[in-house]
């Protein structure tokens, strides 16, 4: 226990130090007016705690509907502990950060037809405040409760938000947040007068980590058939995977998480890949976390966002990572099933095809045996070829409220790799156009 405590403190100190020494002569960095959120600030979790969610909100720019009817998307980054500011400033927001810490317009902005709310979740993540590490939730129920409070507070900020159709989008481990919060809202709604309900319409999960133990089972064969490892290496990884199963069975959840990470590390070592999140990358592509961190630690930027200058931004929180270490391997497949069974919530699963951690193969492993009356029809539904501007973009499979999209040319953070196709996907799915019309 002492050792663990030491390690956590150690990591924190290192990170704080690194952030504090970021280049302050960059303080004149351009923060284009268009890249400023419509509003941003804090949403407190209760009257008795100083813990609060940080958010940025970008209103729809070109909605064809009145704003009061324009869909509202909520973006939740994964991790656990990754800031949604990555999604905002690098993936789906209106402007994208570059290596020189300047901005360029995002051709795939999600706030063209929809308002997009980015929440640093759970508390302790990004600019969100945890009054103490103990207040950070250690399970999905705690996270859903907090998110529900944050969301309802946000909706009260302006009458124009109140009754808009809401879609929760969870990236990677954020898929769990989206599933469990969706369920929490359903349960609350059932007990509330219609005027007080949260108008949840859909849940989207991008390269989701929903049933990690099942997903981990696919790694050896998946890598083998991609030609990344040989048969002997495949057998070795299969043994490691059995250890994950064993640890999960005896509910040693944190150890199971560590065993999964070890398996991934081994696969990365065996294959020599720069990252398993995109098996076509020979160099590590993920420097945007550093760019976002540099940018958000500039005093003027904090001021513009309504953040106290004393707050240090970290793109990934080790406190949150530690709090939820034991949650990662726990399945929330039943939560997705509940959403489908409700017959009121639409579910979108989408995956960048190049991701070996939570890509199409890993997703199919838990989706295809879901307990839901429509699953057989879904599995046997036609897989439609999807083109954007005449070019092959991926594949869409749909039955009733369940839609699955495989996006070619994208890795784990697909929306950043294929911005235009990601934008087309989310717009067509939300607005039920093209291949996404309900059957
Ligand atoms: C800080 O940024 C400036 C301007 O980009 C650069 O010239 C300088 O070398 C940087 N200093 C450090 C310590 O990185
Ligand atoms: C909204 O439309 C204007 C005019 O066509 C365009 O310049 C702008 O980029 C659009 N905004 C978004 C977020 O797509
Ligand atoms: C991967 O290789 C590095 C360098 O040889 C080593 O330090 C590390 O322990 C290896 N990781 C795993 C999970 O085998
Ligand atoms: C910023 O935070 C510091 C330290 O927590 C506090 O003393 C100060 O009052 C805060 N400033 C504002 C403007 O809230």
From TrEMBL:
GO terms for molecular function: serine-type carboxypeptidase activity. InterPro entries: AB_hydrolase_fold (IPR029058), Peptidase_S10 (IPR001563). Transmembrane segments: none annotated. It comes from the Eukaryota. GO terms for biological process: proteolysis. It holds the Pfam family Peptidase_S10. Residues 1-20 form the signal peptide. Keywords: Signal. Belongs to the peptidase S10 family. This is Serine carboxypeptidase-like.
């Amino acid at each position: 226990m002492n050792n663990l405590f030491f390690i956590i403190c150690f990591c924190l100190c290192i990170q704080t130090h690194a952030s504090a020494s970021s280049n302050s002569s960059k303080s004149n960095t351009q923060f284009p007016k268009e890249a400023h959120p419509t509003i941003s600030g804090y949403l407190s979790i209760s009257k008795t705690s100083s813990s609060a969610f940080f958010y940025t909100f970008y209103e729809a720019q070109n909605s064809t509907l009145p704003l009061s009817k324009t869909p509202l998307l909520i973006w939740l980054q994964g991790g656990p502990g990754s800031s949604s500011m990555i999604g905002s400033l690098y993936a789906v927001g209106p402007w994208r950060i570059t290596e020189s810490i300047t901005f360029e317009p995002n051709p795939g902005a999600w706030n063209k037809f929809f308002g997009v709310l980015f929440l640093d979740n759970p508390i302790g993540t990004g600019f969100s405040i945890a009054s103490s590490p103990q207040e950070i939730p250690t399970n999905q129920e705690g996270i859903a409760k907090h998110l529900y409070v944050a969301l309802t507070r946000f909706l009260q900020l302006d009458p124009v938000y109140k009754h808009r159709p809401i879609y929760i989008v969870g990236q990677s481990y954020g898929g769990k947040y989206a599933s469990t919060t969706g369920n929490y809202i359903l349960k609350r709604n059932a007990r509330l007068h219609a005027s007080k309900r949260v108008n949840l319409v859909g849940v989207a999960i991008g390269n989701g980590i929903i049933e990690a133990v099942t997903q981990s089972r696919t790694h050896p064969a998946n890598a083998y058939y991609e030609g990344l490892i040989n048969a002997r290496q495949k057998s070795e990884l299969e043994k490691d995977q059995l250890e994950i199963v064993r640890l999960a069975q005896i509910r040693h959840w944190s150890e199971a998480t560590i065993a999964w990470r070890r398996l991934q590390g081994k696969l990365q070592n065996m294959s020599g890949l720069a990252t398993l999140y995109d098996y076509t990358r020979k160099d590590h592509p993920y420097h945007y976390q550093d760019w976002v961190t540099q940018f958000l630690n500039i005093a003027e930027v904090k001021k513009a966002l309504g953040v106290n200058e004393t707050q240090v931004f970290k793109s990934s929180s080790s406190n949150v990572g530690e709090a939820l270490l034991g949650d990662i391997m726990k399945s929330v497949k039943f939560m997705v099933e509940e959403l489908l069974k409700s017959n009121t919530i639409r579910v979108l699963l989408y995956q960048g095809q190049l991701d070996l951690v939570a890509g199409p193969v890993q997703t199919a492993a838990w989706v295809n045996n879901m307990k839901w009356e429509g699953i057989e029809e879904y599995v046997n539904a036609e897989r439609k070829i999807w083109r954007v501007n005449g070019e092959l973009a991926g594949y869409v499979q749909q039955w009733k409220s369940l839609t699955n999209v495989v996006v070619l040319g994208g890795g784990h953070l697909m929306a950043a790799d294929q911005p235009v196709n990601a934008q087309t996907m989310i717009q067509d799915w939300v607005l039920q156009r093209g291949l996404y019309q309900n059957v």
